[in-house]
Write a structure and sequence with these properties.
It is a single chain. This protein has helices at about 20-30, 40-50, 60-70, 90-95, 115-120, 140-150, 205-210, 240-250, 250-270, 300-310, 335-340, 355-365; strands spanning about 55-60, 80-85, 100-105, 125-135, 155-160, 165-170, 170, 180-185, 195-200, 275-280, 285, 290-295, 345. The protein has about 375 residues and is α/β, with parallel strands linked by helices. It has two domains: about 20-250, Aspartate Aminotransferase, domain 2; about 250-365, Aspartate Aminotransferase, domain 1 (Alpha-Beta Complex). The strands form three sheets. The protein has a seven-stranded mixed β-sheet, with helices on both faces. Strands 7-6-11 form a three-stranded antiparallel β-sheet, with no helix packed on it.
């Protein structure tokens, strides 16, 4: 395809058709109960079915879900949590919310995901959890990471904000980890306008999590008969967001399938282009391609070239170790240096048509 299409954005919000969504929203908005109620519990069950993880709690944000995971994992003030600097800031802000210390492990320069050997190198007696981000929707090498955590008896918290629908070793993301967070923020694969979900491997975490997300109180217990014995927050999801989520679940399978189809198309078509490498996980990773990441020589020139041709592109995230708020965690991260200097994200979402993706490939083959 040689002609220039309409501009192709890097991100675009998917919402269901009006005729599917608006009647359901009208019912809940004027039904007399808009805070946490039955739609929330229905959404938790159906979302759990979708991600094939049965024990799910809903939250108003993915950040709230991550903070709760850290609390449930037993992370206390002053503990260390191993994490990645190659992520959106909320991943590591949640660790600070738990008043723990962020310890950076380095990433694989080929994928931007945590490198297992780097995790091992940063473990100490104070390490109480490992937070793993599946950057851009490419699953991290969980087989090796799980083994490191198992030997040391440390819980793994998967930040799957980018990875709804991804799989690893043929199983759904989060299948063997203690906690897995999914984001439903505006521009993720699936949105409820805002929201987050936390899958817990141990069902005993569910009643504890319900208390943490609502002032230390389980809302399913009569309010005047409870004794508040834990510090809780206002982290719960409401019926309006949950209703959007329930309708989204009728459509999201095909939305993610289009992300995957476009990502796999790029995997096949962009190989061998001079000055360009592809980000890849290990052989067990089945990405869900929230965006598509390339590693480019003269990255900034490529970014300007794509912008001139109407192709959305961005770094999307500033490596977190550059932020002053994390200054006390700074260390040498040569893998991240290499990845961050070459990475660029391009669109591969549900809105990228066959003509669009062919246009993107043609422009990259032309050189920059």
């Amino acid at each position: 395809m040689s002609h220039m299409p309409q501009p192709i954005p890097l991100f675009k919000v998917f919402l269901p058709p009006e005729e599917a969504l608006l009647p359901r929203l009208r019912d809940v908005l004027y039904g007399g109960q808009i805070s946490e109620g039955q739609p929330v519990y229905d959404f938790e069950r159906r979302f759990g079915d979708f991600v094939e993880l049965p024990h799910v709690l809903s939250f108003y944000s993915g950040t709230a879900a991550l903070h709760t995971a850290l609390i449930l994992a037993g992370v206390k003030p002053g503990d260390e949590v191993i994490s990645t600097a190659m992520t959106a800031e909320p991943t590591n802000m949640a660790i600070r919310h738990a008043r723990a210390r962020v310890v950076w492990a380095d990433v694989d320069p080929r994928s931007g995901n945590l490198a297992p050997a780097a995790i091992s190198a940063r473990l100490t007696e104070r390490t109480k959890a490992i937070v793993v981000v599946h950057y851009g929707g490419i699953p991290a090498p969980m087989r090796a990471i799980r083994e490191i955590a198992r030997v040391r008896g440390i819980p793994v918290i998967e930040d799957a904000a980018h990875a709804l629908g991804a799989r690893y070793e043929g199983r759904p993301i989060g299948d063997e980890s203690e906690y897995t967070m999914f984001s439903l923020q505006a521009i993720k694969h699936m949105t409820t306008v805002d929201g987050g979900m936390l899958a817990c491997r141990n069902p005993d975490d569910l009643p504890r999590g319900r208390k943490v997300r609502w002032f230390g109180i389980d809302r399913q217990t009569p309010r005047t008969e409870v004794d508040v014995d834990v510090v809780g927050y206002k982290y719960h999801m409401n019926n309006v967001n949950a209703t959007i989520g329930l309708v989204q679940l009728d459509f999201i399978g095909s939305v993610i399938a289009r992300h995957v189809a476009n990502g796999r198309y790029f995997d096949g078509q962009l190989r061998g282009i001079s000055g360009l490498e592809l980000c890849m996980g290990d052989e067990a990773a089945e990405p869900s391609y929230w965006f598509y990441t390339v590693l480019a020589d003269r990255r900034d020139d490529l970014s300007r070239y794509l912008t001139e041709h109407g192709i959305g592109n961005s770094l999307a995230h500033r490596r977190n170790d550059l932020h002053s708020v994390f200054a006390d965690s700074r260390c040498e991260l040569p893998g991240l240096d290499a990845f961050y200097s070459r990475m660029l994200h391009i669109p591969c979402g549900w809105w990228v048509s066959d003509d669009d993706r062919e246009f993107i490939v043609d422009r990259l083959r032309d050189g920059w």
